Amino acid sequence: MTQILLSEREFFESHSRRVNRIIDLILFVAILVPVSFIVLTLAGIWAVPHTYSFALLLITLASAFILLLMNKFISNYKIPMFFGLLACSIFIFTIGYKPFIAISLSFAFVPFISCLYLDRKLTNIISVLNLLLTMVCFIFRAKTFNIFFEYKFLEQTAFDWFKSNFFGVAIEYIFVFLLTNALSSSYTLIIQKLIEKQENSEVNNKKQKDIQFEIIEFISKCFNSYNSTNAHHEIHTQLYVELIAKKLKENKLFSEILTDETIELYRQAAFLHDVGAFHVPENILNSSKIYTEEERKIMETHTTEGAKLLEFLPTIGNGNFNKIAAEMALNHHERWDGKGYPNQCKGSEIPLCARIMAAADSLDAMISQRLYKEPVTIEEALNIFQEEKEKQFDPAIVETILGLKKEIEQIDKTFKQEEKISISN
To answer: Rounded distance, CA 194 to CA 182, Å?
Structure first.
């Protein structure tokens, strides 16, 4: 089950569309009725005029196909809903108005079907409509009373037959009306209560997630105080990850992965991509000198150590955040050409979140000041990205970053102004 819940309106609309498809299936199954009339008449078991059977067959077949097209091409679900219920009512009426087959309970079929829409007003309207159609059916039957039934010796007129039969069915219909009304009301109330409960649960889950993300942000800020070489790196990369991911989506790249929800998870997870550096000695992490070979190998362990640390992170939501955070921490120093670390993954073997994280990480490292280096200009950084296309970086991500020059300049300018003010205070 996804964490994004449908609103009450969306739920009822989606549910109604499903019922529309069910009714269409019922109409296709109902085609068997006139077909059976034809077969049984040909076999001499029954005597139903072929003109009547073929007319019923054509009406039912046409209704089923029209409803099928409506369900497929009409966006307003109410149009096929009313058409489907009306088609079912006409089908029952067409069978009932001729005395070839005696039906009574079948007149209640459509009112009960309408209960599936969870709309009491709709069910009441359909119930009254079908009662009127039932009355018309019995009037037609009463007119053929003397032709098909030899009750003259009982001195029973067509009107007498109508009264004794229709009013009995009308009494039954009162119970049908009360039952369908109660069913529709009860089902609607139950569904509304469930939706309300789910919405409350979603609100509580969101509050819990917000608290968890605030704790993660706090941990990240604690790490910034430990890592003096790039105190604002996590905040910078978080924004660059979001910027790149949104632009990729805008350019219709990886759109099946980059939903709004996933992009938000990428943004939050970026806070933790260097969490493994907690296990790197402070004298190495904050060194202003070029690493020795031994120091470099120790520093590189922050990727695997980060993944190990994140195994202890409690599951947030459905676990997607945990998975993304672990993938970013482990793989953000992998290279597109397979020459990165820790596992020398290459190309699409590297998770998309880590490929985006790698680009954001490198971008901030290039244009930000460190104890051991001065920042390069954004123009120079973009030239490096161009040179490292299909080497260090995913080519699609490189092209996206090259198209974000103005946005990156504005973000970098804002960061430097805010951090200058923060230092002065």
So the answer is: 18
